[in-house]
From TrEMBL, chain A:
This is ABC transporter ATP-binding protein. Pfam families: ABC_tran (PF00005). Keywords: ATP-binding, Nucleotide-binding, Transport. One of its GO terms (molecular function) is ATP binding. Residues 2-233 form the ABC transporter domain. The keyword Chaperone does not apply. InterPro entries: AAA+_ATPase, ABC_transporter-like_ATP-bd, ABC_transporter-like_CS, ABC_Transporter_VariousFunc, P-loop_NTPase.
Length: 233, 493
């Protein structure tokens, strides 16, 4: 799905990301962890062609993202609040995002049904604009916006942050379900080691822009990750 | 204590300017604006001379009482113009609230900053030379001083009232109606307001103590808006947050005929309806319809002004809205860039919007026929030119503007409320000169009529080439994409 080759991003003298090789096969739930400034959002932004790579390239389904816009048809992403349109209601936002992916309105309405639990009655039918929702509810809108249209690739930056504990558990269930039943590829970053190991089948650790660990998730992974970050103290 | 805080707040503002997106271009703008200041200083002090000696020599009237009489119009007009032009000073309040600045000094700073506005200073350019002429012509010294003090106080009163009543569209409407009403009554010699306003504004000249009245008025208006903002300096006050309720939820089904472009058109219409800043752009477009009236006077009876008027009157919305494409979408530009949309569709929606705005303006401006057929012809020619050429130019310059617009300005009390300011007017100038040039080619080889036709023909040509031009604009947008995304990351600059 994603192939990264000799990718680097520099700001002036400072290298913020340097990845020689990274392949993410289709259907994988890929987890990215690392401290602030490790380069997680930079990596996602490069994959989404929101920033220009200094060297190297990202291929999404064999399309070089900085050369061709074709990857957009099969990719959905929610990175931060700049992926939401504040003056729309959540419904209007879903109709917009879904509509751009050629979904009819009633199809979108039906597709929203399974997410009722996740919204917990705080998002749909509220007669509120997204800008007036709480941070947590905004996040729910953004996450569902990426899942709704069934794109084969979903990128979520810190989806667990700002969510209340119950919703975090719901989100974990939701992501596990989606990953196992639909065969979608997920790229997820998080600061929460427990959540990310629960959801992802592969974990990559970034440190100062470099990949320092890359492993399949096993029962030992959480312990190992905790030890790793302990050593950073 | 006070001055120290002022210094600190000033320091923050300074930093926010120099660390803002596109500082270099901003600096160039500042320099350009410096020239504009010089220009205005020149024009307005010239106006002071004309006002004095023109009234004295051509009409045989005493200039001071005559000017005093007409000041009432000036004041009402100022309220109207301020509403559009005057930008509220920006103080980023939220981070300051929890720091050891007293709330009072934050508000004092905001209000003090509002005094140093383009508008107030331009007035000085007129009244100070006018005062010197009066003194030179041996008017009573203390009388002139107290007259100037009164005028200054009146100006500052409208300044603070404007700050205070800024969010009220009604005030604008009332002021506009009063202005037109008074002018109409005087024009048809039914009622002459200047008979009443003259003694009022002359009173401080005859008896300097009367100056205390406007000075008190000014102090009260300061006090009033100070208290108003002090109370509103909480994050949950109305000034800080937009209304929560969805008031205008419509499906806009009639747009579905536009196919995929309709998704963007729907958003753009919601953008305009639900965000004050975007609404202002529409109001500006409407106001420009009447802008040409100023130039219907005989002294402006030159083809150049007719061409200008034609472009401005038909293109008000095109300029006021179009110049902020794609900045209107700055809050969610990354979303737009990752969705399944080619740039072309996105741009086409904006293009449709400004074109429809122009198409609506042309029949609305048909009342210019009453002044002359030529004026309306200029508007039609200007309209065609706007659709064919300027609609593209505006979109193109948008690729380089890159000023993020914060639609959900929750953090600002003295928010950056006006989407229209002097700088943006400056950016429109290049869009105006070319048609004048084209007009003169036509006028030189044949006639004025030919000039207007030529403007229209160029417009039609631009329209015919729109697909080609669009591909080119698309390329520019793509090249600028990373820069634009980077600039939009910095909000509230």
């Amino acid at each position: 799905m994603i192939n990264i080759n000799l990718l680097s991003k520099k700001y002036g003298e400072q290298t913020v990301l340097e990845i020689d090789l990274l392949n993410i096969p289709s259907g994988q739930t890929f987890g990215l962890v690392g401290n602030n400034g490790a380069g997680k959002t930079t990596l996602f932004s490069l994959i989404l062609d929101l920033i220009e790579p200094t060297t190297g390239l990202v291929k999404n389904n064999d399309i070089i993202v900085s050369k061709d816009e074709g990857w957009k048809t099969h990719t959905s992403a929610f990175v931060d609040e700049q992926f939401l349109i504040g003056y729309l209601t959540p419904e209007e936002y879903f109709y917009f995002v879904g509509g751009l992916r050629n979904m009819k309105k009633d199809v979108i309405t039906a597709a929203l049904e399974p997410y009722k639990d996740f919204f917990h009655g705080e998002v749909l039918g509220q007669k509120k604009y997204i800008r007036d929702l709480s941070k947590g509810n905004q996040k729910k809108v953004g996450i569902v916006g990426t899942l709704l249209s069934n794109t084969p690739l979903v990128i979520l930056d810190e989806p667990f942050a700002n969510l209340d504990p119950t919703t975090q558990i719901r989100l974990k269930k939701l992501l596990n379900q989606e990953a196992s039943s639909t065969g979608k590829t997920f790229l997820i970053s998080s600061h929460d080691l427990q959540h990310i190991t629960d959801v992802c089948d592969r974990i990559v650790v970034l440190n100062k822009g470099k990949i320092v660990r890359d492993e399949k998730t096993s029962s030992k992974t959480l312990k190992e990750l905790e030890t790793f970050f302990q050593e950073q103290l | 204590m006070h001055s120290n805080m002022f210094k600190k707040i000033f320091y923050l503002q300074w930093k926010s300017f120099f660390r803002a997106a596109g500082v270099a271009s901003k600096l160039a703008q500042k320099i350009l604006i410096g020239f504009v200041w010089a220009y205005f200083a020149f024009v307005f002090s010239g106006l002071a001379f004309i006002a004095f000696f023109g009234i004295q020599n051509d009409f045989g009237l005493d200039p001071l009482p005559t000017v005093s009489g007409f000041l009432i119009y000036a004041f009402v007009l100022w309220v109207v113009i301020r509403y559009f032009i005057q930008k509220m000073p920006i103080v980023h309040v939220q981070p300051l609230l929890t720091l050891p600045f007293s709330k009072k000094s934050i508000v004092h700073f905001g209000l003090a900053k509002s005094v140093i506005s383009f508008f107030n200073i331009v007035n000085l350019f007129f009244f100070i030379p006018f005062g010197f002429i009066l003194l030179n012509e041996e008017y009573n010294f203390w009388g002139v001083i107290s007259w100037l003090v009164s005028i200054g106080s009146f100006i500052l009163t409208t300044n603070f009232l404007n700050v205070l009543l800024n969010s009220q569209d009604k005030l604008l409407l009332i002021a506009a109606v009063v202005l037109l009403g008074l002018f109409g009554l005087q024009y048809y010699e039914i009622f002459d307001i200047t008979d009443f306003s003259e003694p009022i504004f002359m009173a401080p000249y005859h008896q300097p103590l009367w100056a205390l009245v406007p000075v008190t008025l000014m102090l009260f208006s300061y006090r009033w808006s100070f208290k108003h903002f002090l109370k509103k300096l909480y994050l949950d006050s109305n000034e800080m947050r937009p209304k929560n309720e969805v008031q205008r939820a419509t499906e806009l089904r009639w747009l579905d005929g536009f196919g995929r472009t309709s998704f963007f058109l729907k958003n753009d219409i919601r953008l305009i309806v639900r965000n004050k800043r975007a609404r202002m752009a529409v109001w500006m477009g409407f106001a420009f319809l009447f802008y040409g009236l100023i130039f219907m006077m005989d002294i402006y009876d030159y083809p150049v002004t007719k061409v200008f008027v034609g472009i401005f009157v038909s293109g008000g919305f095109l300029f006021s809205f179009g110049q902020f494409v794609p900045s209107w979408d700055s809050g969610y530009y990354p979303l737009m860039m990752t969705q399944n949309v080619p740039y072309k569709e996105y741009l086409r929606s904006k293009w449709w919007l400004v074109v429809v705005g122009t198409l609506v303006s042309i029949p609305l401006a048909s009342f210019y026929i009453f002044f002359s057929w030529e004026s309306y012809l200029a508007i039609i020619a200007g309209g065609i030119y706007n659709i064919g050429i300027n609609a593209h130019v505006v979109l193109l310059s948008g690729a380089y503007t890159r000023t993020p617009i914060d639609l959900n300005s929750m953090q600002q009390a003295f928010g950056d409320k006006k989407s229209f300011n002097l700088k943006t007017v400056l950016l429109s100038i290049p869009k105006l000169f070319l048609p004048v040039f084209i007009f003169y080619i036509g006028a030189l080889i044949h006639s004025k009529l030919m000039g207007y036709i030529l403007i229209g023909v160029v417009g039609v040509l631009g329209f015919a080439l729109r697909n080609l031009v669009f591909s080119w604009i698309e390329k520019v947008y793509q090249e600028e994409k990373y820069q634009t995304l980077g600039s939009y990351k910095q909000k509230n600059t």
